[in-house]
Write a structure and sequence with these properties.
Number of helices of chain B: 0
Shape of chain A: globular
Largest sheet of chain B: 6 strands, mixed
Strand content of chain B: over 45%
Radius of gyration of chain A: 13 Å
Largest sheet of chain A: 7 strands, mixed
Number of strands of chain B: 11
Oligomer: heterodimer
Strand content of chain A: over 45%
Distance between the termini of chain A: 37 Å
């Protein structure tokens, strides 16, 4: 079974631009979560989608948004990029949501560099 | 605010030794805990999870949970240089919609 895929793997943008990242979950998984990983803050939860609905959002500004499609694929968008948005953006998929027992499996990540 | 705490390390052990990685959590309502391994430049890989008090073994890995002490640990027996990585501990929020991660412990196994 194929794992979680993310595109693109690397991105270089300049301040003020916007960016869209894509995630395809493991086949049959309906929940997609997004995380930001930086050396200083570690892994931080951005948002989670299930059945095309955002179920939870982390403590990030409104410049960070996302959506999920009917095939469970998800995209996240960051508008008006800032230098501090440089990070590894990770997508994780799981079978379901709303349970403390759902195993989440991560994709390879998208490395975003903002210049 | 739910928190998961880990000692950042580095934890250095010789090849063949037992590596012990520890994690504490602040929310007594937390029910399950996940251990991920992350190699430098790679994404986190799920090793195992535990939700009952006591030990859970999987190969060379043993997870231990003590809910009374709000303490989770991961033991790696017969450590190998290939085990050198950052180990992340995580717990779900109460709604089961977000994993809260510790900042990770870096393990270095020397041959």
């Amino acid at each position: 079974k194929a794992g979680v895929t993310q595109t693109p793997r690397y991105l270089i943008k300049t301040r003020g631009q916007q960016v869209t990242l894509s995630c395809s979950p493991i086949s049959g998984h309906r929940s997609v979560s997004w995380y930001q990983q930086t050396p200083g803050q570690g892994l931080q939860f951005l948002f989670e989608y299930f059945s095309e609905t955002q179920r939870n959002k982390g403590n990030f500004p409104g410049r960070f948004s996302g959506r999920q499609f009917s095939n469970s694929r998800s995209e996240m968008n960051v508008s008006t990029l800032e230098l501090g948005d440089s990070a590894l953006y990770l997508c994780a998929s799981s079978l379901a949501t709303g349970s403390s027992y759902n195993e989440q499996f991560f994709g390879p990540g998208t490395r975003l560099t903002v210049l | 605010q739910k928190e998961v705490e880990q000692n950042s390390g580095p934890l250095s052990v010789p090849e063949g030794a037992i590596a012990s990685l520890n994690c504490t959590y602040s929310d007594r309502g937390s029910q399950s805990f996940f251990w991920y391994r992350q190699y430098s430049g790679k994404s986190p890989e799920l090793i195992m999870f535990i939700y009952s008090n006591g030990d859970k073994e999987d190969g060379r890995f043993t997870a231990q949970l003590n809910k009374a002490s709000q303490y989770v640990s991961l033991l790696i027996r017969d450590s190998q240089p290939s085990d050198s990585a950052t180990y992340l501990c995580a717990a779900y929020n109460q709604a089961g919609t977000a994993l809260i991660f510790g900042k990770g412990t870096t393990l270095s196994v020397s041959s």
